[in-house]
Amino acid sequence: MTGEAIADFGDEPMTGTSDGALARAAGVTAWRQIADAIEADVMNGRLTPGSQLPTEARLAERFAVNRHTVRRAIAALAAKGLLRATQGRGTFVEAKPLAYPIGRRTRFTEIVSREGHEAGGELMSATETVADEETARRLRLMPGAPVLRTEVRRFIDGTPVSYGTSFFPLPRFAGVTAVLRETGSITRALAACGVTDYMRAETRITARLATGDDAARLDLSPGRILFVVDALNVDGTGTPVQAAHVVFAADRVELVVENG
Length: 260
What we know:
Order of helices and strands: HHHEEEHEHEEHHEHEEE
Distance between the termini: 31 Å
Oligomer: single chain
Radius of gyration: 22 Å
Shape: elongated
Number of strands: 10
Strand order of the largest sheet: 4-5-6-9-8-7
């Protein structure tokens, strides 16, 4: 999101009753009425994508309820993918999904920047290990061959949208770690190792539900839908340079498979 702004309701009630209070005898629980009111304000554009909700205390005052009731309403909307609650920062309206094309040349930073957003990357870990049978098959190596294993998390306007594990053949890509740590960019890391251009040789896309670990890494609720992308990139000679397993938050990106 760009320019995170706190939604200011001033003295106006949120969608709901004329004074912002809850209909106590309506037969609907208080937290559900609050969730419905916030959702209505998202749908009618009063709360815009990327905007920050008022604090729990202010919402509790607005609806004349305790903070626990507000917290339950926010959790319900986060589970639906409408809100994102980030510890220490607040609660935000989820941005609209970014169209993310997957083709012969898939470049995260280029795609995000072209859409007018800021791309970011974070190297979470980097270790030298040996290729198991599946990794060796994908990279056309012998099982047990040395490889570099990295974990990188990617951001759009500061919001985490994916995290992935990649394997690079060693010793050819021994320099990847330093560049990834500095820039978070796979493209720059490969370029530093002499691969100025690379192409997507294979992409497999599946889906699953987010676990607790996924939720922590991507700032989303457990049970949200994730896209899982297994990709193989090759250099100009067709030699594999990277085998990747990347998990995307399906609420935040729209994968577009390009022909050719």
